[in-house]
Specification:
about 375 residues; alpha/beta; ten-stranded mixed beta sheet; two-stranded antiparallel sheet; 14 strands; elongated; binds iron/sulfur cluster
Length: about 375
């Protein structure tokens, strides 16, 4: 677990129940207190030691002195959109900024919210259609920082008190989660812990550009988290153009890894496909996708590209998007279209394009890099 910021003060938000009890044992505190604290931290999501009412006053004071919650240091903004999405801009302990976006489900599921979380500050993968990639990599996020995005979103929804609940987590925010398995896998374990948030692993989706060692690690973790592949082009040559990582991890090997990925109880792999006008949006591309995913339980998610002044690609017309999806559906594959949710949420690994962005009266501005 990466906790490099204040190594002498363990971040409680990033510790499993076992690790917390072991830490308490080291400090001569009874194990049952570890369980109580885990409950307060991961189930109740408290942000203040004083709120831990069943702990003796001296222990609360000691925890405040010798440990820390870790995670999000400050909420800079909560920005609701007209479509029901809410974007959170957070500052971390070292002042770095990250975003998460809460999105409502469709139709009757409007009260079932999906949180898109970030897993790295920046990203080193350098996909050519992604603003995060363009800005480069800053650092890994810690387990506590990843988990805290979900705890904060739950806390936000509880405050609204309007019946909406956090139902799904997607690792589609800033960063490549499978380049940070050291923190992402423990974070998922915490999210699915029955004594904690108790989310279903079937409702947690890790989206990757195709990092093969990380993919195998996730498969071997035994957690049965759902998998999404940021595909975006159906041939090795075309994918190399927009996703240089394909040179290191070839498309054929990625598809083999998908075939090996353990899928339980009718689960399917989602292939995310950002549709860019004149680059990957022809009928030939749709047919190549059908060929590529043959034999894999599959859902295709088509994401019309959201143009950004920093990027050279364009959005196809709505008619072209619908036609593309029709070709895929005609092959009896499930294909959904993700029309944008939240004004500046853009698809990449389904990623947020707008890191460091602030809404201003004149639109969106990119905040300076720290
Ligand atoms: S699309 Fe995902 S993996 Fe690619 S650069 Fe953007 S954040 Fe990184």
């Amino acid at each position: 677990m990466t906790e490099s910021l204040q190594p002498f003060q363990p971040a409680l938000r990033g510790l499993s129940q076992e690790a917390l009890c072991a830490l308490f044992a080291e400090k001569g505190i009874p194990a049952f207190r570890g369980k109580q604290v885990f409950h307060w931290v991961q189930k109740k999501g408290v942000r203040d030691f004083e709120a831990m009412r069943n702990l003796p006053k001296e222990l609360r004071a000691r925890l405040a002195e010798e440990t820390r919650f870790g995670g999000i240091a400050e909420t800079i903004a909560e920005k609701p959109s007209a479509d029901g999405s809410v974007k959170f801009l957070f500052a971390l302990d070292d002042g770095k900024k990250i975003e998460s976006v809460l999105m409502p489900g469709s139709g009757a599921d409007a009260d079932k919210m999906t949180l898109c979380v970030s897993s790295q500050v920046g990203c080193a993968v350098d996909c050519k259609f992604c603003v995060t990639g363009k800005n480069g990599f800053f650092r890994q996020m810690t387990t506590a920082e990843i988990v805290d995005q979900a705890l904060y979103a739950r806390h936000y929804l509880a405050r609204q008190n309007d019946g909406r609940l956090l139902r799904n987590i997607v690792f589609m925010g800033m960063g490549e989660p499978l380049l940070n398995t050291e923190n992402v896998i423990p974070a998922i374990r915490l999210m699915i812990d029955h004594e904690g948030m108790d989310l279903s692993p079937r409702r947690i989706t890790v989206s990757t550009s195709g990092i093969l060692p990380g993919l195998d690690e996730l498969a071997q973790s035994g957690m049965n988290a759902m998998l999404a592949i940021s595909l975006n082009a159906p041939t090795q040559e075309e994918r190399e153009v927009i996703m240089p990582i394909t040179r290191k991890y070839p498309l054929a090997d990625l598809m083999e890894a998908c075939r090996r990925y353990p899928l339980r109880g009718g689960a399917r792999i989602t292939f995310e496909y950002v549709l860019m006008a004149g680059f990957n949006d022809s009928r030939r591309h749709a047919r190549e996708i059908i060929r590529l995913v043959h034999g894999i339980p599959t859902k295709i998610n088509v994401i019309p590209f959201n143009p950004d002044p920093a990027l050279p690609y364009q959005r196809p017309t709505d008619e072209a998007v619908l036609e593309f999806a029709e070709v895929i559906r005609a092959a009896n594959l499930t294909c959904s279209i993700r029309w944008s949710k939240a004004l500046d949420v853009s698809g990449a690994c389904g990623q947020l394009a707008g890191q460091y962005r602030q809404k201003t009266s004149g639109g969106y501005v990119v905040l300076p890099r720290e």
